[in-house]
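Table S2 (continued). Query chain:
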Amino acid sequence: MKRFISQKSLFRFVAASVIVLLLTAIAGCNGLFNQNSLNLVSETVKQPGGAAFVSKQAPVMLSMLVNPNRLDGLDGEVKLSKLKKSLLANTGLDYKKDVQPWLGNEITLAVATSDIDRDPQNGNTPGYLTVLKTRDADKSREFIELLFSKRVLAGTSLVVEQYKGVKLLTDIPQTPEVEKPLAATVVGDSFVLFANDAKILREAINNLQAPGLSLTSLDNYQQEVKQLDSNTLAVTFLNLQAVAKWQGLKLSSSLPYNTQLISLAGNSQGLLAETSLFANSPIPLAENLSEQVEAVSYIPPASGLVIFGKDLSNLERSNLALFWQQITATISGESPENLASQITQPLVSLKKLWGINLKEDIFTSVKGKYAIALLPNTENKTTEWIFIAEKSSTTPFLISHLNEIAFHYGLTVSPITLNEQKIFTWTQLTTTGNKTSGFNIQAKVLGAHTSKDNYEIFTSSIETMDRVLNNQENFFNDNPNFRRSIAAFPESNQGYVYIDWTKSQEFIESQLPILKFVEIIGKPFLNKLHSLTISSYDSNNMQLKAGIFFLLNEL
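Corresponding output:
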């Protein structure tokens, strides 16, 4: 007898479907929101109805708020139709005939608990819950009856029970043909539930009937989902400590945030992923930029990575740093070290060449606005950097301190004129030749510095300094792709990180190896990605809100 679909396969399918939906939606975003036949604005739901079945203690819930059938025309390289078929592999059932007629505009997948029986002595068996919106309750019930009848034929023992007015179907595998048990029910006329244990279904019904138990009772959750618009494609909610427990990690109690909500919404330009992190206790407020950072006007448009904001002296306590720390710790179970150096990686060569401690030697003196840029050098396949800091009372000390470090490492501080602008270079002098042929002095510039307007400008080379001072070039602030990207964020924010994916992919992947994995599963998306921009905004002392805008190449 053919092997029938198991519980494990079912949940793998749903998880894979969600991932594929997101990647497909991103990859086809322009067509999705420009073509009337695929316009999802009227086809999405604003809030996940399935959240009413999910416990507020659950580690994670992910909801896609659009019917996957709407994406059939956008499959492209990612074949969603194949995944649909795999759901019913070897059951004799057909997705188009038996599922599509009743499947609605929401699929919610949750890890309901990290251990069903909550007894660590016998190992951990996570409890999974899937909630599907149905457009036809009768057809949904017919599907479940048919699915379980075929599983019984494959070798399961069926158990039927009534729980608080709801009929639950559970089967217990009796042969190797079916690996895991499956439980299912239809609740009212709106939802179909699947779980890997009847206990998970009973708890889901309890959560629905006693709203104080469900995710929807959390003020933080309600606060954010009420702000979702009709373009939202997916929502994820995480209890970060519970996620760590589920993954066998132990988070530091010092991490500032305990829950997180992520939403995904599209427009004609690209896709906006917004995240809200909620704190355990009040945290210092980050200062918003009250006006544009003029330093960006000195950044060449060819830059692959640009970071700008205010107050580098507070970098490790900034929203960007706290966000990075929380995400890194949640993934790895450890807090990242040398966080400032990781965020400002373009300047790491200073530490290698001069022994500079970025935090102590530079950042503590920069309390005003700043900009950092990384430029690809196609001639020698290296990267050039630019660091621009607003002048302040500490500026003379910063310059003097950098000169002292340069002298300590045997560098020469030399003034020269470039484009009628006086600049200073930090130069390494070496000799070549011998007594017979004569000695020559060879100079290698390791950095350059100048003052212009209200800013101190540092670069990795004279050539890069020349690009900064060359007013004939259109500068980064006029970059139309950058302007389109920041339009997705509120004007009042804590700065931006802009990454031109086409120019800096190799460098970024070297710093964040996880992107190699993303590239494998999301290649269709990355092939269409032009840039991504990160910003934090609308925060308060109990919440950090940040967004990533993915700007897509025109199709």
